[in-house]
Design brief:
The chain is mainly alpha-helical. The protein is built from 7 helices and no strands. α1 packs across α7, α2 packs across α3 and α4 crosses α5. It is extended. The protein starts with a helix and ends with a helix.
């Protein structure tokens, strides 16, 4: 418990020192989120490209690891996994629009499954306080999954970019709030 207190104290001190920069970064994040909402397809393609690039790096790293291990016979499965990761990454980088459609399909499926399991959990928690909110959240997740899948592949044109934009807006406003609180604390201490 004492370690957590020290960590939080250190974090608060860093926040006070860097409050201005946190606010600036928060404003930039809000602007990026707004742009992502205005141009969701562009930001979605950017996400697909970034995921593809990361997969290329991961695939190459796995392949290098297999050859560095010196046991290709026992590492055949690792080689196949690395090759598939590399191939999927190259496809995403070369054709990010296709990758965006696949990512949207995966998000839609995830939201359906999350909604089902969330509802089951909510009914297990019932009648404890908050179970209704859990059920509401699960229903919204399930509904969003249905909407994404019903409109797929057209939902790929807007879904990922819109979700990224919303996330960046909330993250940016949180950063602005934290930075502003740090500034106020600095003024009180001066």
């Amino acid at each position: 418990m004492e370690d957590m207190r020290e960590t939080l104290t250190g974090w608060a001190e860093d926040t006070k020192k860097n409050a201005g920069m946190i606010v600036i970064l928060g404003v930039l994040t809000v602007i990026a989120g707004f742009l992502s909402l205005v141009m969701p397809w562009v930001s979605g393609v950017g996400v697909a490209f970034l995921v593809g690039f990361a997969m290329v790096i991961g695939g190459v790293a796995r392949l290098v690891g297999v050859f560095q291990a010196g046991s290709f016979g026992r590492g055949t499965l690792a080689f196949v996994g690395g090759a598939l990761t590399l191939l999927a990454g190259v496809i995403l980088v070369a054709r990010p629009g296709v990758g965006l459609a696949v990512l949207t399909l995966m998000v839609g499926a995830y939201l359906l499954v999350d909604g089902i399991f969330g509802a089951v959990l909510a009914f297990h928690v019932r009648p404890d306080k908050g179970w209704g909110w859990m059920l509401f959240s699960a229903a919204m997740s399930f509904l969003l999954g249905i909407l994404l899948l019903k409109e797929w592949p057209l939902s790929g044109l807007w879904a990922i970019g819109t979700l990224v934009g919303i996330n960046m807006l909330f993250a940016g406003f949180a950063m602005i709030s934290i930075g502003s609180a740090g500034r106020k604390l600095n003024k009180k201490l001066e």
